[in-house]
Specification:
219 residues, alpha/beta, Rossmann fold, seven-stranded mixed β-sheet, 7 strands, 29% strand, globular, disordered N terminus
Length: 219
């Protein structure tokens, strides 16, 4: 694949748009579905809690989250209009029932009052945070006292092997980087997990995916 193609992949991953964006959202759900479900499991939702996801993409995983407890209220925010519309379509019944809401917007500007959410999580958005300190300050603001934040991402060691991460605005992290980032910005890490996933092939190279999952509490 040429440089133009790699730049297009990088651009769609950070901000899916149009028909290509819809395909990207579907591929992200396929490629990262196991990781997202693992993050939801670790989130440990309880009945009647208010949950926020930053960068929900297609939202195809939302039914899995809603099944974790009774009377959950889930909200997702995504920078992409394409993903916001797609997520609403895929979860139309739950949106209509008032259990789910999707908002288009940047994660830096979370349009909710202080102390709104019991739990916040995000999967594979960390690479695109232009200002991690401001991002975490916003998350801490909308979390209730003692609220939980689950940060999930793939390690630098894995991501730097992907040909498209050299294009676009990727910032790569390993587990230790993620822990340091959280603990310097108002969170205490309670659980840290590093796991391997299945192998896959890209551009005639076989790679083994990994995942880092950090569960932290607002302090």
């Amino acid at each position: 694949m040429d440089f133009t193609g790699l730049r297009q992949i990088a651009a769609q991953l950070s901000h899916p748009e149009g028909e290509d964006g819809i395909r990207t959202g579907q591929e992200m759900h396929t490629n990262n579905g196991e990781m997202t479900r693992r993050a939801i499991d670790l989130l440990q939702c309880c009945d009647e809690e208010h949950i926020l996801e930053i960068g929900q993409g297609s939202g195809a995983h939302v039914p899995y989250l809603l099944a974790k407890a009774t009377a959950l209220f889930y909200e997702g925010i995504d920078i992409s209009e394409t993903m916001t519309v797609l997520a609403g379509e895929l979860n139309a019944a739950e949106v209509q029932a008032g259990r789910v809401r999707f908002v288009q917007g940047e994660g830096l500007l979370l349009p909710w009052p202080d102390n709104t959410f019991d739990r916040v999580f995000t999967v594979n958005t960390l690479y695109f945070w232009a200002d991690p300190q401001a991002q975490l300050a916003g998350i801490q603001r909308v979390l209730k006292p003692g609220g939980s934040f689950l940060l999930a991402f793939r390690s630098r060691n894995f991501m730097e092997k992907l040909p498209f991460t050299g294009f676009g605005e990727f910032r790569l992290y390993n587990m230790e980087d993620g822990i340091e980032l959280l603990e310097k910005n108002g969170f205490r890490v309670q659980e840290r997990i590093y796991e391997k996933e299945e192998t896959f092939s890209i551009l005639q190279e076989t790679l083994e995916k990994d995942r880092v999952l950090l569960r932290a509490v607002k302090i």
